[in-house]
Description:
Elements: H1 2-19, H2 24-36, E1 38-39, H3 49-53, E2 55-56, H4 58-66, H5 78-86, H6 96-116, H7 125-144, H8 152-166, H9 180-187, H10 190-202, H11 217-226, H12 230-238, H13 250-256, H14 260-263, H15 277-306, H16 310-326, H17 343-352, H18 371-380, H19 383-386, H20 401-414
Parallel strand pairs: 1-2
Amino acid sequence: MQLSWQKxxxxxxxKEMSSSSTGLAEWENSTFxxxxxxxxxxxxxxxxxxxxxxxHLKDLEADLKQSNAPLLLTSTSLDAAFFxxxxxxxxxQESGFGxxxxxxxxxxxxxxxxxxxxxxxxxxxxxxxxxxKKSIVSYSGLILSPTDMLEEKxxxxxxxxxxxxxxxxxxxxxGFPVGxxxxxxxxxxxxxxxxxxxxxxxxxxxxxxxxNLFNCLRPLVCLQNITTVPALxxxxxxxxxxxxxxxxxxxxxxxxxxxGPYLALTTNGKDPRFAVAQQRSQAITDTxxxxxxxxxxxxxxxxxxxxxxxxxxxxxxxxxxxxxxLNIERRxxxxxxxxxxxxxxxxxxxxxxxxxxxxxxxICTRLSATPADLEKLAKSLPVxxxxxxxxxxxxxxxxxxVTEMFFLTMExxxxxxxxxxx
Length: 422
């Protein structure tokens, strides 16, 4: 509904702008009213279905009449227009935030059109559109922040709309426009960033019994989109559910960790197509694709976090090491399955990647070193690495991230590497 309105709106705008020569104020009024879906005149005067769908800004109209100003929506009256429109109830499932996102799409499309029609447009229209775009971004950040501008019910609706948009691919018609999220984050004070996005991050926390391979991607895509912004990736890393410190064992960690239920997902063979010989091949192919998408999305979340700064890198590495420590019982031949999770094995796909052509495991005869191997390795190390004879080295340096990942990968292999469907 919104997208079809947007296309018709922009097409009508192009026709109107190409067939008439107007001043900047008249151009701003015509363009802004169509983008914001508002009008300064009563609907009885509407000449098209688009105008009939526009919301009448009665307060702004009264203010302009009282000040003897022209009934035109221009750059100087944008704040009043936004404030009044956002406090008028929206129809259906639309919220104030979703409305602003659609306005942003319309501005972006019209900006592209002005590049080809610049000669027929009044001077200054490019700057006017940029001012409108900045206002849309500013109010998007404002209504997501804890302010008195909207009622609590309206603000909750905006947060739910943000979650829905974040669960779709960036740049798609159903998701955020490219660059929109980054611009909105820049408008939100860092002090309240956690108040805005922590509820959205917490909405991706699910119970293991509530997700499967068919419905797991929506919250994961939300996390993937959130972590594309470094500030939000750091916020996710600081979330207590990302790497809980109170877990008693691997299974407890899997249940408490934000990513735990997703990392533990696999096929259980309950798909009815597996029982039908003619459908089994297609079921296997479909399951492999779903598992591949799941692994790729989890990896994208973690890699986005690794790119957000050294502090977040340390948290992600500690997260992986925590999984290793709490699943150490997997080294035993007989271990209690209630004390370990599947995280230790699933994590290998993240550490090694889907495929690593640089490593050849065909010549490996074991996955752990013997004491003799370690002693031989220690003797071969240079003095600069072993340190002095007293056992101390004041110039000891911290391992870089690649080395840390190598160590974690080797530890994962020792805990048991189960190949995923390929």
